[in-house]
Amino acid sequence: MAAKKPARRSAHYHLRFQILPGPRVAADARALAAFCRSHRIEEVVLFFAAEEWNNGLLSRREEDRWFKAVRTAKTILDRAGIVTSLNPWMTSLHCDRGRTFPKDRPFTPMVSPLGEVAKACASFDDPRWRRYVTRLYGRFARLGFRVLWVEDDFRFHNHAPLFWGGGFEKSILDRFSKSLGRKVSRPELVQALLKPGRPHPWRKLWMATWRTIHLEVARELANAVARNMPGETCLGLMTSGPATHSVEGRRWKDFFAAFSINGKVAHRPHYGPYIEAAGREKPFSVMMLDLQKQFRPAGTESAPEVENFPFTTWAKPDAQTWSEMALCNFFGSDALLLDVFPFSGNQPLKDPGVCALLKQSRPSLDWISARFSPDWQTTGVSLPWREDAEERVHLSPGANMYNFRSLPFPGGFFHLNYGIPTCFQSGPVSALFGQVASVLDDAQIDDLLSRGLILDGESAQILQNRGFGDLLGCEVRAMADRESETYAIEQVIRSIPGISRGFYMNANLVPQMARIQPHREAVEWSTILRPDQSRFGSALSVFRNRLGGRVVTYATPNPSALAGHDCRRLLAQAAVRFAAGGKWEAVTVRGGAYLIPILFRRGSATRLVIYNGGVDPAVPVWEGNKTWGRPSTITVLAPLAQPQSAQARKIASPVGSGWTLDRPLPHHGFAVCEW
After folding, report:
1. Is residue 108 part of a domain?
2. What does the pLDDT look like over 457-487, one tens digit per residue?
3. Which range marks the domain in which residue 221 is found?
4. Which of 16, 389, 545, 671, CA to CA, is 20 to 30 A from 179?
5. What CATH number has the domain bearing residue 554?
6. 571 and 644 fall within a common domain
7. What's the rounded Cα separation, in Å, for the pair 78 and 43?
8. Residues 133 and 184 sit within 8 Å (Cβ to Cβ)
9. pTM of the predicted model, to two decimals?
């Protein structure tokens, strides 16, 4: 008997929707079921007590009222053949927003690092709140949902109006004091957490305390659901920024293990803006999906949050929403969690614009899903990071809790927007920008310096101060701010393909500039001038060190802050090729502003996805090494349109040879090249 062919992947719509308690529940549920059938929505994720219909954590009466409404709606959806999951909108509660604790459930409030006390957000260390939330999840689990989601208020940070967030309650301070062996006050602790330079030893211990509390609650929730579920139910966790989770001591494998029930768990990664954003911001979404894919355990269901808030095309245009859904499917997502309807409680057809969005998006999303699965991996310039980064990052004097930020995203923004693909696996070339240079071990730095490494001014200064100066090929003599120096112009002083020697570019607007002097063995490609044409220092230099590594150093901290220019893109692409030393197997893209590439590999197969983040239509040109030939197929995906076949033609220019598309790529459009 012939082996059964695997099912062809398609896009999966999971619609998040709120039905209000009251006399309309049954009618609203039937209308929702009909809408799902006509729009190929296989699963509804029911909200309760969400957003404008949230009065805070639930009183017993409010809990009963919402439970009855959810039970009725689920019964009707089940009969219609619609799978159901549940999304309680709060665990500890997102923010006060005028709310208070219910009178019959007076929970212990969160306390901020400044000592502010929340009115409606509960402490994770409050036994009364823990009993409440575990009983709540256990009670709703009895209804037999496929997934019970844990919302992203499962965090210490971001509980307005508290400064930064909570987690500085007396009971948590007492826990920490007990582990330390002496009494510690909140101001004393905060001062230690924010100590400039090398981290205070308490920082790691405090983050471990937070981690322990979160894992305790996660296990209690999982146990409550497991005890009460009538069939196969799993928990799903929404996550936001990895840096702020790192501040809370989160270890991703431990978190997913704590939430797992019978080995199953789901993940809802945040990755896109809630409102309209320029296409040049798309690298954030690319990197968020890619990074979270790396720390998610294999086999975890991934359903990214397709968010639009406060909803309608007045907040986010359909073309952008479509592009974000498409991006999820390029990364092999199992489903799309669609948060596209207002929480207000109207029936779906009251918002007809959503109907058109879902129907018009389906053909291209199915096309992507059939070709991209989770086992496709990105490749390109590597962006090093570690999940315990915020335990290690060095802070400046005067820092506050918001200054714990050491993500690799600045290096990714710079390279992706300049047509250079990135990834989070180790490779021949890495980009180390900013404070990430302070969180890696010496052995990790040695490894990076023995291959290709691209630095900005801040990371070069950090590595120099750590004793790696002789391997960088330059000396960082000072860091000047905008008001202390008159750095203004970058001048190219070495011939680069496509750029004439002597070419000037604006360097006048960045807030800081490192004054860098290359070593004798290094080669300076461009220099920083003052308005009087005197030399400030090197802008871009390259160096081959004694470890065999190739180091590229930009003087600007986070050079993506420099004014964008076609010649800057050519410099950046040439710098990556130098750093690779002939080992560069990726491609570079040019042909328009903000042409953002994502390069996927699986075995011997390669797929290049080019996104047009510029507003103007653009004709992409891609260039690789000599092994890159004509793609076997090319498909253009325009927003809300049917996929269209396209062709490539070979070109040669002063910039270099390459391949180009036979038609313009529209804003928010994708070109998919397959080899």
Report:
1. yes
2. 999 999 999 999 999 999 999 999 999 999 9
3. 102-230
4. 389
5. 3.40.50.880
6. no
7. 10
8. no
9. 0.96
